[in-house]
Amino acid sequence: MALKKKKEQAPVYRVFATREYGEGEDTKTFWLRVGTAFVHEKSIQVLLDAVPLNGKLVILLEEAQEEEEEELQIPKRRR
Length: 79
Fold this sequence. Notes:
Layout: E1 12-21, E2 28-39, E3 44-48, E4 58-61, H1 65-72
Antiparallel strand pairs: 1-2, 1-4, 2-3
């Protein structure tokens, strides 16, 4: 019996709500992870644990996590 190759895992995305605080040059953005998104053949499934108050979501690729967390100053999630 031939072994089936494991399908390549679809990319996983992290979903964030952002909120800006302060004014002018002192403006800072707070990033809150509110869910996860998965790409399927013809759709994208977004699973939210919370809904953003401003209606804005930012979706980042999971693989690029370390680089973007440094750039965006996203605090590492405790497990």
